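Blinded run. Sample ID left blank on purpose so nobody reads anything into the name before looking at the predicted structure. Input follows.
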Amino acid sequence: MTLFVEGVTILTVVLVPALVGLFITRRFLSASFHEASSEAAEPIWAIVGVTFGLLLGFLVVDRWAALQAAQSTVQDEANDMVNLYQLSYGFPDSAMPADLRGQLATYAGLLVDDEWPALGRHQSSPRADAAFTGLWRSYLRLEPALGATSASYQESIKHLSDLQDARNRRIHTAHDEVPVALWVVLLGGVALMIGTVWLTGPQHLQAHLLMTIILALSLASILFLIRAFNNPFQGDVRVDSEPIERVLQRFE
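Blinded prediction complete.
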């Protein structure tokens, strides 16, 4: 489902019931009841509006920050891979640096081709994980010969550890999404806010209709942003594998 279709769907799901409920409320509730309920519900409206407004705004900011952090993490991974590749040229031929560079290229290729689609499903790639484990073992086998004497090796181990940390953070971000319970609270809050505006709106139909439409559009827009930012590795607004692809091109 494209971003446009998702936006239209969310807008329809919020706006249509809001308008239908408005006309039903005005049709079956008397003017005196509407006036009395409006006076009684105004304090509740203020509390509900502030509470759920803050929650919705916080979630939008949180999801956007998670998306930006994930993109930064991917760039860190790309930088560490380039550093590892370049540092391997400081190893002696006995360390078979060409094999290490080949393993790095294989791992980067698996990230782009195998792991990125899996991240969109909140998973990681077992093949990429196995390739990275093999890379660690290849470097650790060099420690008896290079550990104490090679500055390039010590620096490589540091970048390999940083690469491991960035990989862990990226996979954690792929699993981090708005839980179902919070979605239930959000949708319940949206329904409560729309229901409250039915009882607190002005007597004039056109003014009441305009007030309801503005509220529904605002709530639908916020829900759309939360949905768009919810999965950093899926959809039209997502973390791109382009930094890793540039690394592959550099390796070639």
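Unblinding after everyone has recorded impressions. Residues 80 and 159 are 6 Å apart (CA to CA).
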